[in-house]
Amino acid sequence: MNSSVDAGMFQLAQWGRLSAISCLTQGPTFAANARQLRDLNVEVGLHLNLTEAFGHRHQLAVMPLPALITRAYAGHLNDALIDAQLTRQFDAFEQVLGRAPDYVDGHQHVHQLPNVLPRLIQLLQKRYGNCRPWLRYTAPGMQTGIPIQQSAKAHVIAALGANAVARVARHEGWRTNRRLLGVYGLNGGARHYAGLLHQWLSNARDGDLLMCHPAVAGAGDKLAAQRAAEFHVLARPELGQWLRQNGVHIDRPSWH
C-alpha cells in the first residue's frame, strides 16, 4: 500500500505478531519492499485489487466498490478485463517474489464476488495446478461481545460471497481459513480497537483468521490514524498475555 503500511507489517511480523501478510502488487511500494518478506516467517498472499487505480490512468477493470458489486451480481463484468487484471497482478507477484502466493484474498473482499471468483479459480488452476494457494473465507467467527454495528458489517461482507467460496472449498477441494474475525468500522482509536481485539481473541477458534490493517504513523491515506492505532495495540507487550489468557497462538495455517 505504502511505506508506512509496509513498515508496520514488517515490524509486527518480526515480533511474531503476524502470521501472514497480503500484498497489493499494484501499490507504489510493492516492487521495492516486497523482497523483505523473504526473511520473515509469514505466509505471503496476493491481495487482489479491482477498486483502486493507484494513480494509473489506464487501470483495467477498476471501479468503485458499489459499482463493482452491482455489476458483478448483474453479470455485467467483462471476463476479458477481469482476466487481464488478475494475470497482471499474479505476474507482478511472481516477478518480485519468484514464487506463487501462499494464499489469495481481496482488497475490500473482491475475490469472492460473482464473475470474479470463477475467473480467479480458473486462473489458479491454470497457473498452479494442484499446488493451490488457500483462499480467504469471509464467514464471520463468533461475535460474542462484538457491538451490533461491527457484527452487522461482518455478516454483510460474508453475504457478498462467503457461500460461493465455501462451495468451491467443499466441492473442488480448495483450502480456506475456518472463519474470519477482525471486521469493524476502521475507526475509534486505540482504546476501541483494544476492546474489540479482546473480544476477537475470546471468540477465536482453531483455524480462524483475524485480519488487521496496521501501519506506523504517517500512512497518508484516509485510514492513517486508525492504522496507527492498530499498530500501537498490536505492538503492546501485554498482547502476549492477552493471547495466553484466551488460549490463542498466532501461527501459520495448520496444513503447513
From TrEMBL:
InterPro entries from the xrefs? Glyco_hydro/deAcase_b/a-brl, YdjC-like
Q: Which keywords appear in this protein's UniProt record, sorted alphabetically?
A: Carbohydrate metabolism, Hydrolase, Magnesium, Metal-binding
Q: Does Coiled coil count among this protein's keywords? A: no
> Which GO terms fall under molecular function for this chain's record?
deacetylase activity; hydrolase activity; metal ion binding
Query: Matching CDD domains, A to Z?
Result: YdjC_like_3 (cd10807)
Q: Which cofactor does it need?
A: Mg(2+)
Name the domain of life.
Bacteria
Provide one Gene Ontology biological process annotation.
carbohydrate metabolic process
Q: Which residues form the signal peptide?
A: none
Protein name per Swiss-Prot or TrEMBL: Cellobiose phosphorylase
